[in-house]
Write a structure and sequence with these properties.
It is a single chain. By secondary structure, the protein is mainly beta. The protein is built from two helices and ten strands. The chain has a single domain, classed as Beta Barrel (Lipocalin), CATH 2.40.128. Strands 1-2-3-4-5-6-7-8-9-10 form a ten-stranded antiparallel beta barrel. It is elongated, with a radius of gyration of 19 Å. It starts with a helix and ends with a strand.
Length: about 260
Amino acid sequence: MIRRWAAVLLAGACAGCHGSAPLLHPAHVLRPGAMRLGGGMSGEMVVAGATAVASDAGASADPATAEGAARRKLSEITVSPGVAPWASARVGIEGENEAGLTYTGRAIRLDGRHAFPLGDATLSIGLGASALFAGGPGPGAEGIDVHGAGVDVPLLLGFRSDADLYALWFGPRLGLELLGGEVRLPVAGAAPRGPVVDASGQHLQLGFVLGVRAGFRHVHVALEAAATYHHAEGEIAGDPVAIDQGTITPGGGLTVTF
């Protein structure tokens, strides 16, 4: 049993280059001075536009071609499909405010948000800033050394029970990222390693988040899913490239409030 859990944790740590970043918090903010710690995992799955659109609409999307390889690398450093860990710490602040710090393998995100009570519902508006690390220890990240920064704005409408046994939240989330660095391109044939080239990109994402949380007193289990449209464009080895992809991002975690 211990070996199984160790393998799961190691797999999460090795997924450091992947890009899923769930919120996993309700629209309601914590009371002033209260803290919430959480941990879990999430995954980013491409469900549309895997071959995407390059700057030349008639070009081949075959990943064995140079242009296909550039699109795949742009997807890896921006959309970053795969499995990633999630760890979060949040604190309530006077005036219906909350701040949080989240680690998602690919990014460290600092955010703040304000809640507006609307009768039985609550509207939450947040702003997050992220430091991005689009490279990691996993074999899929070999030859990737890309860093950057991002901002995102989640807008959540939520409901919860009087005793906080359960909560439901949903709403849009808009994000923008800027990245730059180096990537290793694959090569055809028997050669094991391709050239290292300069890479840069801009990544726009627009998603819709749906989450639910249930538990008793201080311990809750949170589940969340997001459907997101991604548009990324940039340069790989000096050549312009662009992609459009759609993803589904499920995530879950255990939280403790005190």
